[in-house]
Amino acid sequence: MDPRLLEYYNRELSYLRRLVLSSPPSIPKLPPDWGCREPILPTRMWNA
């Protein structure tokens, strides 16, 4: 697997973990740049 892709995954995972931990249990607040990030991850994951 491409090391750059792994680094990308690690960044995304820590980002998502921070997002979950920092948000109240009700509805997670999505940052403004979520729309740019969100579509990238699933497609990359399934195609990897």
TrEMBL record:
Name this polypeptide is given: Uncharacterized protein
Organism of origin: Salmonella enterica I
Taxonomic lineage from the root: Bacteria, Pseudomonadati, Pseudomonadota, Gammaproteobacteria, Enterobacterales
